[in-house]
Design a protein that fits this description.
alpha/beta; Rossmann fold; three-stranded parallel sheet; 372 residues; six-stranded mixed sheet; 12% strand; 14 helices
């Protein structure tokens, strides 16, 4: 089997007939054509997790997590999600024939809810969940109790709750490590909410190092929106502990995680790999989401532009060199958050009575835009 199961010997697989796959993993690592030059990074790359079956890196998690549920004979999948985890789990549960119930973050984008529901998941929203730490912790604990009654485990994309699923996410790090061309001065930037993705990438690097002692470990940096400073700030300030926040204020969907969750371990692995933390404003993230689409052809959700925001900040601060190999995780597809079109200020073109009007419009637009 291919996909994440390529690395089965490294991360404690389940039985062959219990392994679910839809071709997740082995996502493209592409070089920037325009944005790298624009921001002074000669060797800028994007890891396109948008190409996974349901449109985000969470398919790696779901493939491993739902396979484990089959292994333990679970009756149902119970999960929480801000969108992408729920969509991925719903898709893989549909394939596995497992009922799927997802408690979604208050304010989850409609497109993500629709995707979950199309796959057949039952979505339930609790006021304040995912935004208020006390409400969020209470929901987690109640779900844990409920899961025992149905012989299952609560699926949250964090090691704290589903280490089995997160081992699937480690394959991002394994894939990057296996790229033998990426060996010198590699700087990896990862977006973080609760820290699980960044931690998993780091664990992938470290596991590869154990098997390949000559492998040069990259630096791993944690990037968070300013409105959810639980890991990046403490990492940069020299703290050994992540800090929870009473209320997440960022508008970047998917990274609104006020609790610590995997924060302490994420902080530790970044520090072990020579990385630091970056806090980026929402406005910059939204701006870069537009630039990725219009200048690189990469249509991502806002969270998918967060790593790039961190890399640009690092370059502007002189903390990475111009010739460094910079890898930014693009975590989820833009169809999951439909707000980009409105933020771009675009409007539908006028209806033309004749083709002559179309011709004049094209000529005028080219002239005004100074296209070459």
């Amino acid at each position: 089997m291919k996909g994440i199961w390529t690395y089965q010997s490294i991360w404690n697989p389940v039985e062959l007939d219990e392994r679910l796959t839809m071709g997740e993993g082995h996502t493209p690592l592409i070089s920037a054509r325009n944005i790298g030059k624009k921001y002074g990074m000669e060797n800028l790359y994007f890891k396109l997790e948008t190409t996974n079956p349901s449109g985000s890196y969470k398919d790696r998690f779901a493939a491993a997590a739902v396979s484990h549920l089959l292994h333990i004979g679970a009756e149902v999948c119970l999960a929480t999600s801000s969108g992408n985890t729920g969509s991925a789990l719903a898709a893989y549960c549909a394939r596995a024939g497992l009922p799927c119930f997802v408690i979604v973050v208050d304010g989850t984008p409609p497109a993500k809810l629709e995707q979950m529901q199309i796959y057949g998941a039952h979505t339930l929203m609790v006021k304040g969940f995912g935004l208020d730490e006390k409400i969020t912790s209470s929901v987690f604990e109640q779900l844990r109790s409920l899961s025992e009654k149905f012989n299952t485990k609560v699926q949250i994309s964090a090691y704290t709750y589903s280490p089995e699923g997160m081992r699937g996410v480690e394959t991002i790090g394994l894939e990057l490590a296996a790229d033998r061309e990426m060996q010198e001065n590699v700087q990896v930037f990862s977006p973080s909410g609760g820290g699980g993705l960044t931690l998993a990438i780091g664990e992938g690097f470290l596991k590869w190092k154990k098997l390949h002692p000559d492998y040069r470990l990259p630096a791993l940096h944690c990037v968070q929106p300013e409105g959810n400073n639980t890991i990046a700030g403490p990492l940069r300030d020299g703290s050994n502990k992540a800090h929870s926040t009473s209320h997440s204020t960022t508008k970047v969907s998917g990274l609104q995680v006020p609790g610590v969750i995997d924060g302490d371990k994420t902080l530790a692995v970044c520090r072990e790999l020579g990385g630091t933390g970056y806090l980026v404003p929402d406005d910059l993230v939204f701006q870069l989401q537009v630039e990725l689409a219009s200048e690189e052809g990469i249509y991502c959700e806002p969270a998918g532009a967060v790593a790039l925001a961190g890399a640009i900040q690092a370059r502007q601060n002189g903390e990475i060199k111009e010739n460094a190999s910079v890898i930014c995780l693009v975590t989820g597809h833009g169809f999951k958050d439909s707000g980009l079109y409105q933020r771009m200020g675009r409007k539908q073109n006028d209806y033309f009575e004749t083709f002559q009007g179309v011709t004049e419009y094209i000529r005028r637009t080219i002239k005004d835009s100074n296209f070459k």
